[in-house]
Amino acid sequence: MLRSSLLTLTRIGSNRLMSTAAKLTTVEVNDKTGIATLTMCRPPVNGLNLELLKDLSQSIDEIESNKSRGLILTSSNPTIFSAGLDILEMYKPDKERIRAFWTSLQDVWLALYGSSVPTAAAINGHSPAGGCLLATSCEYRVMLPKFTIGLNETQLGIVAPKWFMSSFLSVLPRRIAERALNQGRMFTTEEALQVGLIDEVANTKEEAIEKCSAFIGSFAKVNPLARALTKQQFRAADLQQLENERVQDLEKFLFFVNQPAVQKGLGLYLESLKKKAKN
Ligand SMILES: CCCCCCCCCCCC/C=C/CC(=O)SCCNC(=O)CCNC(=O)[C@H](O)C(C)(C)COP(=O)(O)OP(=O)(O)OC[C@H]1O[C@@H](n2cnc3c(N)ncnc32)[C@H](O)[C@@H]1OP(=O)(O)O
């Protein structure tokens, strides 16, 4: 259950805030609805590095074990849900750390995509690549206007692994998913709604959280065990595939990311991001 030695429990209105010192995520449980909001808080862009991934895993475990009625994933940044994987973890990587990094990403995906509680993403900002992976691992997505979401990996000269595709395919028709992935397409909020990559649009983060809560509330009269087992049956083949191939998936990733051409591409991409940030 909760790691009580490190845990601080604060009450904000009807919410209980559970967070540990120096954590990159917070978990707030609404006492009225019993729904937990899991917030990513790693400035500047919620880049998924090893530490954020570990905190995400721990927070998902907490929510699973504290009998929350659902999980809403969101961001403390007002314009970015998550910039995806922290490219600094993959560029000129440390040998041991990059293994732990990828393994932690696998852990987060298995826990979120396979979660027994209903899950929803309040996408309150841009959500490229790994950000889109997190959002599409949830069962429902509500997004704010004027942001973008998608799997842009091919634009960076990298390849989304099969399990990224599984999440994408659980939301989009195959033809749209395949074309978008091949193009590395980023969808605007409006486009994402049109193709079904998101379920609803909200004007504020609060409204997005309300809509996510309403989705989770729609299961109020459904037997929780029957609901969880049904969801897990839908997702079992995808989850099992990664479980069976975890080691090979890690080795494939390490081989791929260490290719000189991939390293060169990641270096150039980082430079372009930094140049853009300066201007
Ligand atoms: C046979 C087949 C085999 C298959 C094998 C498979 C093998 C596996 C291959 C590997 C797969 C790996 C999968 C990767 C998925 C990913 O998630 S990759 C990451 C992709 N992310 C992006 O492309 C997003 C890039 N960022 C942006 O577009 C923008 O930053 C933003 C829209 C998110 C935010 O814009 P803005 O608010 O204007 O902020 P910026 O000024 O751009 O950025 C601020 C600051 O953050 C740095 N930064 C941004 N994103 C990242 C990132 N993802 N990683 C690290 N750092 C990032 C940016 O450089 C700025 O830094 P400075 O302030 O200049 O230091």
Automatic annotation (TrEMBL):
Keywords: Acetylation, Fatty acid metabolism, Isomerase, Lipid metabolism, Mitochondrion, Transit peptide. The keyword Acetylation applies. Pathway: Lipid metabolism; fatty acid beta-oxidation. Pfam families: ECH_1. One of its GO terms (biological process) is fatty acid beta-oxidation. SUPFAM superfamilies: ClpP/crotonase. Its main location: mitochondrion. One of its GO terms (molecular function) is delta(3)-delta(2)-enoyl-CoA isomerase activity. It catalyses: (2E)-tetradecenoyl-CoA = (3Z)-tetradecenoyl-CoA; (3Z)-octenoyl-CoA = (2E)-octenoyl-CoA; (3Z)-decenoyl-CoA = (2E)-decenoyl-CoA; (3Z)-dodecenoyl-CoA = (2E)-dodecenoyl-CoA. It is found in: Mitochondrion matrix. GO terms for cellular component: mitochondrial matrix. The keyword Transit peptide applies. Homotrimer. Key enzyme of fatty acid beta-oxidation. Able to isomerize both 3-cis (3Z) and 3-trans (3E) double bonds into the 2-trans (2E) form in a range of enoyl-CoA species, with a preference for (3Z)-enoyl-CoAs over (3E)-enoyl-CoAs. The catalytic efficiency of this enzyme is not affected by the fatty acyl chain length. This is Enoyl-CoA delta isomerase 1, mitochondrial. The gene is Dwil\GK18281.
